[in-house]
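As a warm-up, study this chain.
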Amino acid sequence: MEQFAKVLIIGINSKIGSLAADRFAAKSYEVYGTTRRRDSIADNVQYLNLDNKLEKWPNFPNCDIALICSSIHSVAECEKYPKKTRLLNVDAICNLVKRLIEKQCFVLFPSTNMVFNGQIPFAKPKH
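Now compare it with the structure written out below.
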């Protein structure tokens, strides 16, 4: 199995992101990350607010793997602010994935069973 050397974790301060960072570091991977918390910026952690325009996003380091652990995950917030949450959870994530693929990163984006088309409650997939 191929060993990867550099990992970028988008949302390194999240529950999944911080756990993943610890696990990768324990396996001697070079770990980089992004955060919205300005007090968490470090040599290997850049500031990234996915609400910002693309031009304000940092130039991500070249990495072998990118793990995306950043989104609005509150169903209540998604229901209350559907336009805002779509901008982050769909549009910004798609732009982020495109940018990472351009940098030749293998992108992992863990998701949930809470994926909807936004129009019909409990929508079933079309075959």
